């Protein structure tokens, strides 16, 4: 493991770009850019033919610069299964990654080129652009309270990826000083459901609080762009609405999967297609931890109502079945009593 | 509609072949066959080169004959959704079809080239090789009792395709005279799950009672061959074992689908993959009639136990969730009372 005390911030901090449109005259300013983005004005004549290959390939250097400017330094706080899953894509896209968690995940961090920090003070002193909270729902509050917020730049963007949304929104608003930006998100997939890529999978987000400055809006856009580049279906939605819908979809699905899992079903020689779907559903939902499921219940106020509706639905189905059974039996009883008494 | 009284049996009755191996000397007897399978002995010289094309193509005629001999005259009793679904494949394979049901399904029958009979007496007088009971589970007994069994040949093979198996087995054994053959089957698919063909789908059967005569065993094999030709996975299994397994697979799947259907779920903009599986399961199970589901419950003695197990599983999951909620609250209560009282 890298010792956090011996590890300085190895990556230069990317200061937010103070000018969101740095290139009002592209033909001219492209010429003035050097590989490392520093300006030089040495009286070189302006070159107007943009598409011809130039000896120093200014166009490609300029686009490299823009690409570099869109790269973020992201601190992933909570580097478990889901944090590592996200990190692999962040790293592939060229972002600088820092990782922090209570357990020692230094090997996993090293495998994606992320620096691992045990001490949150060291992490925060690296001045990440984005602090991404990727803990379990249950430990989110404790972990957030453990961060020395005063060591971060005051402009830091906080993002969460929890499967409920009202709870982290309120937690952020309550615990973070007003100078931090807040983006609540829910990538509605995981290592199992997105093993073939993220394309077409929903990514929900709510821009809870963003300072009205171009560089901070750009940074948020750059973060969201990580997911749109992978082909996610980007859905902007208030946290409250997310939780209402998610109780009826995600929490319900997990509940059904976990109830059926308790029956300890085996594949049979005579599986119907429907039964195979059910087995797949069980496999899919139970590959997530019980803590996640418990979090979906405990931290979504709509979940209790959903459980009650499910209870009512199950009771009503049983009543229909037993009612018909009773009807048939009663009919037989009456028929036999009629044939005894009469005609 | 074809009037049943005006409709004689239009297809020649295919008498069971008394000799299961009719061709001990193929080179000789092939020569002696005529297109319609009648024998002639007019002293033609034997031809020994079987693979050369012959002016009268005896080889192909002989195989045509064998093919014709494997064709069955099948009376489908109960010509609803499922009976019609099976009939389409039977017809494509060249079997002769007769159909009977209380409702007028003469148009559907005509569309697959089947003769439709309103009057079961007319149907039975046609002497089908196979009587296939394809009613709903709930009406099976009433329909079977309505058939004039005395008009059938004593060697008739009775087959059912009900989704429970102990019940029709006992019904057949109880109501059919001992000279009839009995085969209980369950094609574990339907118009929805097998819309792309039957390949790989399970077909369960139990040879409940077959007279020990080659022609009757061959006829049963010919009937089963309809399903193996389509690529079904043929599973021979006692009726009791089928019902035990089916309660835990098919009835459970339908129950889950119908409970969830009662929640009246809609697709959302943020469907997870798991939730889409659940919606598909609902669609799949609710495309079958409630009568089928009710039949799976009422006529399978293992279903009540399955409902009870599901009840216990749901309760136990709720207890886990509410237990953890309570634990957390209690911890907070104790912590706050400790901080009030002391230290």
Automatic annotation (TrEMBL), chains A, B:
The record's Pfam families line, in alphabetical order, gives: F420_oxidored (PF03807), TYRAAT1_C (PF26213)
Prephenate/arogenate dehydrogenase domain location: 72-343
A GO BP annotation = tyrosine biosynthetic process
In this entry, which stretches build a coiled coil? none
Arranged from A to Z, the UniProt key words for this protein are:
Oxidoreductase
InterPro entries the record matches: 6-PGluconate_DH-like_C_sf (IPR008927), Arogenate_DH_2 (IPR012070), NAD(P)-bd_dom_sf (IPR036291), P5C_Rdtase_cat_N (IPR028939), Prephen_DH (IPR003099), TYRAAT1/2 (IPR045011), TYRAAT2_C (IPR059064)
Which segments show compositional bias classed as Pro residues?
A: 15-25
Q: Has UniProt tagged this entry with the keyword Oxidoreductase? A: yes
Q: Where is this region: Disordered?
A: 1-29
Q: Which GO terms describe its molecular function?
A: arogenate dehydrogenase (NADP+) activity; prephenate dehydrogenase (NAD+) activity; prephenate dehydrogenase (NADP+) activity
Q: Which domain of life is it from?
A: Eukaryota
Protein name, as recorded: Arogenate dehydrogenase 2, chloroplastic
């Amino acid at each position: 493991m890298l010792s956090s005390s011996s590890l300085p911030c190895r990556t230069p901090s990317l200061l937010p770009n103070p000018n969101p449109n740095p290139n009002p005259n592209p033909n001219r300013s492209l010429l003035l850019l050097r590989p490392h983005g520093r300006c030089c004005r040495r009286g070189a004549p302006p070159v107007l033919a943009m598409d011809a290959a130039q000896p120093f390939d200014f166009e490609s250097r300029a686009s490299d610069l823009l690409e570099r400017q869109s790269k973020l330094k992201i601190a992933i706080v909570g580097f478990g299964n889901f944090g590592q899953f996200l990190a692999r894509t962040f790293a592939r896209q060229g972002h600088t990654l820092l990782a922090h968690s209570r357990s020692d995940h230094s090997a996993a961090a090293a495998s994606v080129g992320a620096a691992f920090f045990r001490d949150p003070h060291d992490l925060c002193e690296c001045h990440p652009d984005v602090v991404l909270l990727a803990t379990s729902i249950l430990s989110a509050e404790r972990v957030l309270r453990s961060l020395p917020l005063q060591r971060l730049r005051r402009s830091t963007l906080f993002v969460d990826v929890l499967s409920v949304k009202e709870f982290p929104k309120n937690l952020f608003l309550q615990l973070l000083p007003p100078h931090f930006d807040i983006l609540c998100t829910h990538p509605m997939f995981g290592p199992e459901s997105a093993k073939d890529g993220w394309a077409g999978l929903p990514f929900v987000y709510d821009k809870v609080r963003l300072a009205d400055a171009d560089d901070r809006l750009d940074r948020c856009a750059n973060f969201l762009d990580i997911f749109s580049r992978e082909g996610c279906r980007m859905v902007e939605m208030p946290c409250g609405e997310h939780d209402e819908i998610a109780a009826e979809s995600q929490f319900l699905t997990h509940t059904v999967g976990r109830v059926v899992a308790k029956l300890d079903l085996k594949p049979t020689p005579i599986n119907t297609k429907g039964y195979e779907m059910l087995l797949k559903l069980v496999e899919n939902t139970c590959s997530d931890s019980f803590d996640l499921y418990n979090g979906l219940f405990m931290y979504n106020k709509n979940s209790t109502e959903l459980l009650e509706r499910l209870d009512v639905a199950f009771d009503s189905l049983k009543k229909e079945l037993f009612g018909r059974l009773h009807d048939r039996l009663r009919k037989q009883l009456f028929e036999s009593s009629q044939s005894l008494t009469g005609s």
